[in-house]
Amino acid sequence: MLHYDMPLYRPPSEGNNLIIQATLGCSFNQCSFCSMYKTKEYRARALQDVFTDIEQAARVWPEAHRIFLADGDALTLPMESLRAILDKLASCFPNLNRVSAYSTPGNILKKTPEELSELAARKMPLFYVGIESGAPVMLKKITKGASQKGIAEALIKAREAGLKISATVILGLGGQKYWEEHIDGTVELLSQVPVNYLSTLQLYLEEIAYDEFMTKFGEPFEPQSDIAVLLELERLLTNIKPPAPVIFRSNHASNALPLAGNLPKDQDRLVAQVQASLQTQQGIRPAFLRGL
């Protein structure tokens, strides 16, 4: 049995997969909205400790074929460590076909194209990247540590290296004042850079992050209602013109309206579903069923 250093997070799509903690916490950990690793101090785990976890997991679940490297951004590890971990995983799990991890845009940019291509070749082809917003004003207000240009460069670099990117956007992030800028900037970004998967989250501020978010926002923040958030979603889905096909999901537990489809193929259907919910209030997930 593995003993994780809690709290432990993973994307919804990794819910049935094995998790191995290669790092603890997040090396950046300054995004104002994010409470995931506020209680942790970042550190890379000793390789021998990671290897021990891998060996224990292999005894319990030898047939595991998909593995998620936690915590916040395993790509910040040097290539020597990543190579060692991936080699160990490959030797312990004969059915291994994919390793994935969270990443920041900055950590993608720090790796060379050759290093990124090597990760893909070593069965680590998928990274989850929180875009949050494409609007410059919002990226500054949430202290994302990345610009629209930097995010675009990172996503293009990853794609050219053969990696797959699962990107997330946070609805409601701009509040009532900046919602149009937030969505329009995000549309602008996602219409120029290729991602393989796109998911929305809905802003949900836990108590540990609330004061930091409000302070860094720099002015009074008026949160969006569920109806206003659906208007954001409608605007996003109506105007986005992805340069390559995208699998779209709003299945994260924070979302008011769960959706699934492919862009641009299902764009009209998805927009129609949002508009129907706006008109009838049907399909909206009750607030008590939502969270991080």
Number of helices: 10
Report the strand count: 10
Lateral strand order in the biggest sheet: 1-4-5-6-7-8-9-10
What amount of the residues lies in strands?
A: 15-25%
Helix amount: 40-55%
The major pleated sheet works out as: 8 strands, mixed
Q: What's the order of the H and E elements?
A: EEEHEHEHHEHHEHEHHEEH
Radius of gyration, whole Å: 19 Å
Span between termini: 25 Å
Estimated structural class: alpha/beta
Q: Let me know the average pLDDT.
A: 95
Q: Which geometry do the CA atoms define?
A: globular
Stretches with pLDDT under 50, minimum 5 residues: none
What this model shows, in words?
This protein is of the alpha/beta class and 292 residues long. Helices cover 40% and strands 16% of the residues. The strands form two sheets. It has an eight-stranded mixed β-sheet with strand order 1-4-5-6-7-8-9-10. The relative contact order is 0.11. The mean pLDDT is 95.
Write a compact overview of the structure shown:
By secondary structure, the chain is an alpha/beta fold. The chain has helices at residues 47-60, 79-92, 105-110, 113-121, 136-141, 148-160, 175-190, 207-217, 226-239, 267-280; strands at residues 18-21, 23-24, 43-44, 66-70, 98-103, 126-132, 164-171, 197-202, 246-249, 260-263. Helix 1 runs parallel beside helix 2, helix 7 (175-190) runs parallel beside helix 9 (226-239) and helix 9 (226-239) runs antiparallel to helix 10 (267-280).
